[in-house]
C-alpha cells in the first residue's frame, strides 16, 4: 500500500506525520518526495547504504554533423535550444528531456542524448533518534529513501519519478510530498492508494486544504485529514470536513514539549509513546478506509 | 522604489503573516502574492478585484479523434506515459502526466495532434485596504509556476511605477525551486523568515545560498526563536559568519494565531510584544538602502 502525506500549505506537519507513521508501524518504507526541502532524515537518522545520481537525458549536438538548420530549436516547446551562427546552444535548465530535438533532426547522428544529473537518491535503514527504530519484535526494518536536488538544477519532477521507483511493494510505503498543488505534488500522488492531507485550524489551513482536496479528488484517490495544532485556531476546518464528508483521522494538539522535541529532531512518537499507539491506530483506520 | 521579497525555504514559518503586517505599515505599497500555488495573502488583505485575466502558460497537445487512425505511435514515443488508450474513446492525453513537449504532434503520421495554447491559471489586480495587490491562481497540477510568478511581479512593478510607490512587497513561495528563483531574481532585497528548528535552519541555509547565487542581499528574521534557544544561537552564528543581518527575533505567541483566525496581521490587532517587534523590523527595512 502506498500512502502519500500531502498538504496545500507548507509547514503544517507533513514530515512530522510521514516520519511518525513510518516509525510507528511495522514493515514501512519512508520515501522523501520533497526533493527541494528534504527534511525527513532530520527525524529518521537513516544509515545510508547506497547513493546514486539521477537525471534525465539531454541532447548532445555533434557539431561536425549539425547543419544549423534550426529544426530542433523550432520544435523545442521549452526554448531550451537556440541556434547561433556557429553552433546550437543548449540551456540545460530549461530542458525536460522529452526527445523532440533528436526526433526532428534531419541529420543522422547530429543529436544524441546523454544523461544529465539532477540530483541524488540515497537508500538505507532508518534508525530513529533512539537508534532503536529497527529493534522490533518482528525484526522488521524501516526502509528509507531520500532524494535531493543538486544546487542549480531546476527540474524536480523527474527526480520524484525516480525516487518513487524505489518503492518496495512488500512494504507499506509512505511518500512525504512537497507542499502545494502543482506538478510535483501530482507526480507524487499518482498511483497512491490513500492520501493524508495535513492542515491546521486557521484560515490559511482551510484555504490550502480546499485547494489540495480539489487535486486529490481529481486524481480519484481516497483521502482523510489530519489536523495539526488542533486546539489553536477556529472550527472552520472541522466544519468544512464534516460538510464534505471527509474523515478527520487524527488531531494533534499543540504542545510546547512536542514543539521543542521537533526543534531538536526528535519524532513525537519517540518523545511520547502514546503517539506511537495513535499513529498505529491511524494506520488501521487508513486500512479500513482503503478496504471500503 | 524598492522591492523586497519574503521567503523561507521551509513552509509555514510566517512569510504571509509578515507580508500582511508590512503592507499595513508601509505607505501605499504595491503587494504581490508570488505563492501562486497556494496563495493566502488575500485572506489577510481582503481584495476587491479590479481586473483579471487568464494565464496562458504554454501549449498543450490536442488529438483530433476524426483524424486519429489509432496507430499508437504517439503512445509509443511519449516519454512521460501521458497517452492512455481507452477502448471506447481511443487515444487520450492525460493532462496531469503531459509535459507539453509536443513530441506526439511530431510523430503522428496522420497529423491528428496539434499544439494549442492552454490556460494554466488566472491572475488578478485587486484593491485592498493597504494598496494594490497582484495575485494569481495556478490551475491544479500545472507546472508553469515560475512563469506565472514572473507575470505577477512584472504587473506589480508596472503598477508601482505608475503610482510612484516606494515599496513592492512580494510574498514568496516556499521551497528553493523554479518559482522561488522567479520570485527573487532582480529583487532589491530578500527577507528570510526562519524558525528555531532543525528544518528551519536547514532550509534557511539553502535559501540563503540561493540568494547569494542570484546576488540578492538577504536578511533574516527568526520566528518562534524561544522554542529552541540552542538552534537560535546556531542561526545567529551562521548569519554572523555569512554577513547576513538578523533584523528581528519573534517569540512564540498564541496571540499571533488568534490574529490570523480573525483575519488580521499582528500589527493590526494587539499581539503583545510581537506587534512591537514586527513594527521595529519594518522601520529597519525602510531605513536601509538594502542590507
Task: Provide a concise account of the structure shown.
The complex is a heterodimer of chains A (292) and B (291). By secondary structure, chain A is of the alpha/beta class. Helix content of chain A is 33%, strand content 26%.
Structure description:
The complex is a heterodimer of chains A (292) and B (291). With 292 residues, chain A is α/β, with parallel strands linked by helices. Helices cover 33% and strands 26% of the residues of chain A. In chain A, strand 4 (81-83) and strand 5 form a beta hairpin. Chain A is elongated, with a radius of gyration of 22 Å. The model of chain A has no long low-confidence stretch (mean pLDDT 92). Chain B folds into two domains: 2-55 and 134-286, Rossmann fold (3-Layer(aba) Sandwich); 58-118, Alpha-Beta Plaits (2-Layer Sandwich), CATH 3.30.70.20. Chain B is built from ten helices and eleven strands. The longest helix of chain B has 19 residues, at 145-163. Chain B is elongated, with a radius of gyration of 22 Å. Chain B starts with a strand and ends with a helix. The model of chain B has no long low-confidence stretch (mean pLDDT 94). At the A-B interface, helix 4, helix 6, helix 7 and helix 9 of A face helix 4, helix 7 and helix 9 of B.
